[in-house]
Amino acid sequence: MNALGFGLVDASILAIAALGFTLQFGVTNYVNFAYGAFLTFGAYMALAANVEPFHLSIWPAMLIGGVCTAIFGLLLNQFFLAPFVARRRGLIFALIVTFTLSLMLGDIYIIIWGSDFKELDYSGTVAHEVGPFLWSNYDIAFMFITGVVLLAVHLLLTRTSLGRSMRAMGDDLNLARVCGIRTEAVVAATWGISAFLAGVAGVMLAIEQRTFTTTLGDNFLFLILGSVILGGIGRPAGAVIGAVVIGVAVQIGVLFIPSGLAPVLVFVALIGVMLLRPQGLMGATPRPPGQL
Amino acid sequence: MLKANSAIATLVGLVLLTACGGGQSSSNSTANQPINVGAMFPLTGPHGPAGQAFLAGIQLAAIQINNAGGVMGRKLNVVPKNTNGDPVDAVTAVRQMLAADNPSVVIGFSGGDYQDALPILNQAKVVTLTDVGDPVLDHQVMPYSFRAVPSDALEGTAMAWWASHEGWNRVALVFDADTASQTLVPSIQAAASSLPLTIVASNSSDLPTGTPSYQTQVQAIIATHPQAVLTQVVENDAGTFYSEWRNLGGGSIPVIGSDTTSTGAWVKAFGSAQAQNELVSVVPSTSTSAAGAQFVAAYTSQFNSPPRSLSANDYDALIVASLAMIAAHSTDPSVYYRSIPAVTTPGPGVTVVTSFSDGAKLLAAGKKIKYEGISSPMTFDPTYHTLAVPFQAVKTNDQGGITVIGEIPAEALAAI
Amino acid sequence: MNALEFLVVSLGTFAALNGILVLGLNLQFGSTGILNLSYFTTVAVGAYATGVAELPPAPHGGLVQYVGGFNWPFPMAVAFGVVIACCFTFVLGGLAFLRLREDYLGLTLFSVQAGVLLIVTDYSPFLDGPRGVQGLSGPFQDQLSPTGFEVMYLGLSLVFVVATYVVIRNLDIAPLGRLFRAIREDEVAAAAVGKNSWRVKTTAFLFGGATAGLGGALVATYTGGWDPGAWQTPETLILLSAIVVGGRGRPLGALLGSVLLIEGINEAGLFIPTLGDRPDLLPALQGVATALALFAFLWWRPQGLLAERPERLPKAAVVRTVQPTR
Question: Mean pLDDT for chain C?
Fold first, then answer.
């Protein structure tokens, strides 16, 4: 039963990360393989805010981590990704670019910050019993933050014109253009939001793991992809549901199978989806290929 | 086609450029030719700093040997090769060394890069002294290879022995799902069956790579109420696991680690304050003799930093090889390999020496010697060429300073 | 053999072996447009399969654990590696192509690559986890001297890479090769004229997978072993960069890119000394250099150094497409 509690905490972090990932995919129609590197970036930015040289408390540092990553994502899109997509139309190029970027960023992080482990500065993580679960104040805070984020994203998508534009582009890009939606601006904003969510999730992950290195986001990316594929890529609700399933399954699974085989669970989900329902739990028929 | 031609031209240019930079042509060894000593270490990558420290141990030995007149009047020349901690790169480096440098001895390797290169050296009949702890080698007969470090199987046994010695008989295992669990855990499990030691929660002992937290496993282990934890995990995982342990109410628990856990960085990851009370690392004994102190002083003055744990092992390795060459009057490894046991086996009429110069003088006078190393007695098992060494239980502070708190004699380990 | 001779022989062998690997990915990606981010996993399948076929059975209850252990001679073991790689490729590709569109495909293949790596590394009873399989040998390894083995393997690799090149080149100029490129250019149009895109893609995927398995088998028996360190995520990227830089779709171009990028950037790193007190800098810089080379070519010359020669079709067959897809 405790495992379920732990799984829910993991799922919260996963949900924020998966949400950011799927929002960006929904609008741009290509995968950002460098997303794991965004999580890592957020953690290192929070490190600078929290430890050296600014010594802020952890919560402002988390916000700063998210904001810095958002700016990073915006700049990356503005000066690198969007020009690439415009110049070389074709899905494959975008995929290669983000895949390469993920590896290059990892190397750049090593060059800047080194390969040794880092620690954020915070205290008070002792768990206590909350009903049948064992949660610390931070665990509860994470779930609360996730709830707030989900609500905020939901409101964004349903109540704001930006959100409506994002959904329109997600459904039919050309039609959205025809309707006068400023697609470049929406893409830029989406990158900012996606990167913000990634940064926040990265900081949460760094807090949960206590120590982190430049590969913080990389191993997590596998779980993010699993959640997103399971839930239906491009579907925000699906990403959240997928995150809950994967997050809980991994923690509970450890009790029953040799711990080395935990990735198998994600695998089973992936293969199941591939065979039975390629569009995922919440997905509709995907867009035709190649359309950017 | 033009572009292909220019590519070929580039390649040829690259090859020529590298050729101008180095490489000696192998020729018959003459009286004044240096003796090549191959040094195989990861000099780049995450194990780079460790590899460089071990290389420095060899270099210090070479300097001292050359100052004492060399081996049969010839100087030693250390040829470092970068394995990058990778078995494929190690193979390339070894093959290059064999083709170009005609080494008389090869020293080095680590857990991650020896697998494919060591058989090549044995086939080429080159004497090799390795820093490999993998117990897979414990029962392989490789006539030309000698272990300069104790097997991890011994270390695992020592960890289990210490737990039993401290009066604990319910222990949990916490290891990374990597070579640590492959080499240490089996020997701990084997020792546990002989000692009165019970291993609890064994299916939670491997920490998988892909999961974001270990809380479920931590909880499962706490619930079995172990009296102590035996562990080897990388620093990053130590930071995660042990902080979760404390958060979930595991409290203060004695932790027995290995040489991996005896560094300042690991102690910081574990938690410096808690480490002073809880953490004990079981490491191969280092000599407290005068020779040991001299080694540390000489190393520090030569390289401006203190030696790392295996620097002394490699220092001893080169001295052993050099003394064996003198004893055999040959630098040909296929000849002098038989002399390595001859200079490292104690017995009646055999004088124990602790430095190269003492050993060389006695050999020149026709006496029998046994070299006793700084890192260990350097007595090799006759068949498998493994070392039996005593261990120590130590505490480390977060600067890396080590305090010995107990001894684990080699005889006690052999009895298990 | 002196240093220069050894350098040439060793670089040559690795260049030939990398050439085989890159030819396979070029068939899948360059010619047919399938971005197979799990290509190196297939290479690993071939390597591991050859390994467990060549090795004797793992000692029961010993430290080393792996499945299989048939004690087969070199040719049979390599053939086994290729066959198993093909099976893996068929299962993976067949399922994926049947159901998934391009965007999902890239995602799924990437996840497969990540997942298999995690499982093999963490679960030791399968393929000995981090230690991997060791003690593999090439043909006649016991009878030859170290120098003799080097030269023999250089010859062997050259024979295989030339043979692979010939097969793939012939495939390329055959009607099947045109089908591959048709699928790459416009899958919908190809389907409209009655070409079964699943069959074409799976065929290309299989040929590429067989090549991957062969390459993996040969590298493993050359170096004597195979472990997770040899097939981490960046490996596929290096091959991909070689294809983009050298010439996408064109086998000779892929080989050229392999020599320039892989030998030039990656192998040269072995001979450069450590930079200051940061030994992790050099591999990181190599990675950045490879990535930048890839970006530069994608931006300015995506067809690579040796561009594909344009198809010469009879005039009547030229069809105007409404929107360019490249």
Answer: 83
